[in-house]
Design a protein that fits this description.
The chain is α+β, with helices and mostly antiparallel strands. The chain has nine helices and 13 strands. The strands form four sheets. It has a four-stranded antiparallel beta sheet. The longest helix is centred in the middle third of the chain and has 24 residues.
């Protein structure tokens, strides 16, 4: 009987369940490391339980007896059966039997077998482990540390790094001037983004040659007393580009795209002309080039054209009107 208990003790070191045919099964119920309070850890532990309903033969105990005693399977089974009979006989006779290092068997009033595990039973992997308790380390600031970096300085460095990253992000975006047809007009939404002073400076710069020519034609204008004809002659001079507008004559342009790179603007204009918009052209302004499909003298004409333009050309659905 004690031999069987020794084999069970050995098998429980590496197996969580060992069944004794005709008696029951020994089961190891383990518990891992658990937190105890704020500064403590409880060591892993386990307990050995006995279940009398586990009676099928798993072969572990028989195999251990066969290997140790160099006997056959049938001989090993007979030894197990004999040991179980001795245990039950002693329980009937004494009511309590200590089974080696495993624990103690008892019988209750209903003659049912009860197993009380030995609390000193230890698995090899748990040997020597104890509960741990830690003392919190006080976080104190030392004033004599010359190498300490003030928190304010660290915050300033972090803020500067974030600002530099944002600037680099927007600089990288400024180099991306290509967009699909459906987004040409979304590059710049309205001329409000640009300062009106810049536009006025451009108009004055364009109008300067006209003023010079007007001075040359002044004697002719005085002789004929017709200043309007002189202005007409000036605006028809070939030296003024067809993409500029006469001073004082406001027009409404159907803008389909705004670009910073001339090559991309010229490609957009070429695409418009290939699509049948013969009046399409460009307006050059500081830091930008506006590409338009048509221009009109009144807002009503421009608005009516824009509605039909959006309907017939979905790829230019973001086109808008520029008054200039």
């Amino acid at each position: 009987m004690n031999e069987i208990a020794l084999h069970i003790d050995f098998l429980l070191h590496t197996h969580d369940c060992v069944i004794v045919p005709g008696l029951g099964g020994f089961v190891v119920n383990g518990r891992g490391v658990e937190k105890s309070g704020l500064w403590g850890l409880d060591a892993p532990s386990f307990e050995v339980l006995f279940n009398s309903k586990l009676t099928y033969n798993d072969g572990l105990l028989a195999e251990s007896l066969m290997r140790t005693n160099d006997v056959s399977y049938d001989v090993a089974i007979k030894k197990i059966e004999k040991g179980c009979e001795e245990l039950k006989s002693k329980l009937i006779e004494h009511g309590e039997v200590e089974w080696d290092n495993l624990g103690t068997f008892k019988t209750d009033k209903d003659s049912s077998i009860i197993f009380l595990a030995n609390r000193d039973y230890v698995r090899p992997q748990f040997f020597g482990l104890t509960n741990a308790r830690f003392t919190p380390v006080a976080l104190t600031a030392t004033t004599d540390d010359d190498n300490a970096i003030p928190i304010k300085t660290v915050v300033q460095y972090v803020s500067a790094a974030i600002a530099a990253a944002v600037v680099l992000f927007f600089v990288a975006l400024s180099y991306n001037n290509s967009a699909p047809d459906s987004q040409y007009a979304e590059i710049v939404s309205k001329p409000l983004i640009f300062s009106s002073k810049v536009d006025k400076a451009k108009v004055m710069k364009v109008a300067q040659p006209a003023a010079n020519v007007a001075e040359v034609e002044k004697p002719v204008a005085a002789a004929s007393n017709n200043s309007s004809s002189s202005i007409t002659n000036v605006t028809e001079e070939p030296s003024i580009s067809s993409t500029t507008t006469a001073v004082g004559a406001k027009r409404y342009y159907i803008i389909v795209g705004v670009y910073e790179v001339r090559e991309i603007a010229e490609k957009s204009l070429s695409r418009l002309k290939s699509q049948g918009f013969d009046t399409a052209s460009m307006i050059e302004r500081p830091m930008r080039i506006d590409v338009y499909s048509a221009s009109f003298t009144t807002r009503e004409e421009a608005h009516s054209y824009l509605l039909n333009f959006h309907k017939d050309n979905p790829q230019y659905k973001d086109a808008w009107i520029l008054k200039r």
